[in-house]
Amino acid sequence: MDYQDEIIKHLTEFWNTEPKIYFFTKGPSHKLPYNFRILEFEPNKDRDYWIYATCCMSQELDSKRLELFLLSNKQDEGLIEILTAVAYYHRNTAKLDLYNTVNFGKPWQNDSKCTFGYISLPYLHGTALENLYIDALGNINFYWLIPITEEELLYKQNNGIEGLENLFESKSINYLNAERLSLV
């Protein structure tokens, strides 16, 4: 299996759904890896939400390999654009990693106050999703891109990662509600 096939197989087995595969062609998509795609997983009997995931945002020869996923309560092609923009940023501007934040440049969905994303461990899904080990390459990490508001971003900057994650827990963040208000 090639690198892309390994990622698709890992996510398909974990999410228990065959994905639709997209390539966003607007903008400078030619500056993304040739095999970069966005995978869309529809709800199934095990979960009632949609999942959008990068595939080959990182490449085999990268020193740190990571892929990201977003959760959504509805099918939304706008998330394909957001993940493509994040992948472009990762490949062409600054390498992203766990606990980084990124500016979406637009609302997460509709008129959402969430215009940033926070890269988190996949707490709801565990290490079976988080880690894919490939012989001769090593590990690929799959991290959760959680949409956050500008106020929550500032809260993270002032209170650290643990402070932000404690805020999520204490306020029982609804990760699927694009219309949610800031927790701060």
Topology, pairings included?
Layout: H1 3-15, E1 20-22, E2 37-41, E3 50-55, E4 65-72, H2 78-92, E5 101-103, E6 114-120, H3 127-130, E7 131-134, E8 138-149, H4 150-170
Parallel strand pairs: 4-8
Antiparallel strand pairs: 1-2, 2-3, 3-4, 5-6, 6-8, 7-8
List keywords for this structure.
8-stranded mixed sheet, alpha+beta, 184 residues, 8 strands, single chain
Order of helices and strands: HEEEEHEEHEEH
Quaternary state, please? single chain
The main β sheet shows up as: 8 strands, mixed
Structural class: alpha+beta
**Low-pLDDT regions:** none
Average residue pLDDT: 96
Radius of gyration: 16 Å
Shape field: globular
Helix proportion: 25-40%
Number of strands: 8
Portion in beta strands: 25-35%
Distance between the termini: 46 Å
Question: What's the structural domain tally?
Answer: 1
> Helix count, per DSSP?
4
What does this structure look like?
Strands 1, 2, 3, 4, 5, 6, 7 and 8 form an eight-stranded mixed β-sheet that branches. The chain has one domain (3-149). A hairpin with an 8-residue loop joins β2 (37-41) and β3 (50-55). The longest helix has 21 residues, at 150-170. The mean pLDDT is 96. The chain is built from four helices and eight strands, in the order αββββαββαββα. The chain is α+β, with helices and mostly antiparallel strands.
Quick rundown:
The chain is α+β, with helices and mostly antiparallel strands. It contains 4 helices and 8 strands; from the N terminus they run αββββαββαββα. Strands 1, 2, 3, 4, 5, 6, 7 and 8 form an 8-stranded mixed beta sheet that branches.
